[in-house]
Amino acid sequence: MLSNLPARADRARGRLLRVHGTIARDIGSAIVSGELPPGMILDTEIEASAQRHVSRAAYREAMRILGAKGLVTSRPRHGTRVNDMAGWHLLDPDVLSWMFSGIPKPEVLHGLFELRTLIEPPAAALAAERRSRAHLTAMRRALVQMEIHTLHEPEGRAADGEFHAALLDATANAFVISLTNGVIAAVDALTQFKQRLHRIDRDPVPDHRRVYEAIAAKDAEAARQAMSDLINLAVLDLPEKQRPSRLLSKKGITT
Q1: What is residue 103's three-state secondary structure?
Q2: What pLDDT, on a 0 to 100 scale, did the predictor assign at position 59?
Q3: 253 found inside a domain
Q4: What contacts 204, CB < 8 A, 6 or more positions away?
Q5: Has residue 252 been placed in a domain?
Q6: Which range of residues forms the domain containing residue 215?
Q7: What pLDDT was estimated at residue 14?
Q8: Full-model pTM
Q9: What is the C-alpha to C-alpha distance for residues 144 and 166, in angstroms, rounded to an integer?
Q10: How far apart are CA 7 and CA 149, in angstroms?
């Protein structure tokens, strides 16, 4: 009998994890969609757990998750309040995933492309000056996997993330590298959203390969331009009415 106790405890923890993860996802999605507006006071732990037929511990843990992501703030005797967008951890992979579960607001879509434009071309230029053989190997390996699986498959999108992670790591700048998870989450969210709107037949591997070749050649300006072109082409994959046209480069690639 006693030998079964650890296994039972593990199953109980697993159930709690699934329950509080589901609650966090449901409430988080409602917050980022605007269904639960900023300033709204959520139901108390007792009320909410009873309505959802879950334990208070599961609901409390869900609120802790949302608080860690900046979506809510809990204060004793004041309840749990929904934060406005300025307080959200916008590059948190879960927050991005919830934003893109439906049609994201224009400021979200355009803001992510603007973020990529501000960060990735200069990072590519810096990577060209500082990359190591290991960085080039990681980028080549990612390109092979992207070609095999394509961005329509999870494995291909994971390889895309590995390519961008290797590029940012090649900058040898700890502050830039700290943005890696956010940049990868942004790239993946945008890719999946575009594919959900319509099938994209354009092969992005040659565009990534041009970035790689410029970095391998230690040509900083060519790397910067190749990354700018890659982002511009990603913008053009969107339906015209959703493109943040102000971000499209005036050099080389136009609508």
Answers
A1: coil
A2: 94
A3: no
A4: 146, 151, 160, 230, 233, 234
A5: no
A6: 93-247
A7: 47
A8: 0.81
A9: 14
A10: 38
The reply to whether 255 falls in a domain is no
Domain at 70, CATH number: 1.10.10.10
What number of other Cβ atoms are within 10 A of residue 124's Cβ?
A: 29
Residue 255, pLDDT score: 42
Residues 6+ apart with CB under 8 A from 105: 99
Query: Backbone phi, then psi, for 152, in 5-degree steps?
Result: -80, -15
The count of C-alpha atoms lying within 13 angstroms of the C-alpha of 238, restricted to the half-sphere facing its C-beta, is 20
Q: Which residues pair with 74 in a beta bridge?
A: 80
Q: State which of 57, 85, 113 marks the end of a domain.
A: 85
pLDDT at 237: 87
Count of domains for the chain: 2
Domain end, chosen from 27, 59, 85, is at 85
How far, in Å, CA of 145 to CA of 147, rounded? 5
In a domain, 183, yes or no: yes
The pairing of strands 79-82 and 72-75 is antiparallel
> Mean pLDDT by 10-residue block, N- to C-terminus, for the chain (255 residues)?
48 61 95 95 94 93 96 92 95 92 85 93 98 98 97 95 98 97 92 84 94 98 97 88 64 45
Residue 81: C-alpha distances to residues 35, 60, 66, 73, 93 (Å): 14, 14, 11, 5, 22
Please tell me the distance from the alpha carbon of residue 105 to that of residue 232, in angstroms, as a whole number. 20
Predicted confidence at residue 249, as pLDDT, reads 53
Task: Write the CB contacts of 193 (distance below 8 Å, at least 6 apart in sequence).
Answer: 100, 104, 109
Residue 145 in tokens = 């996997």
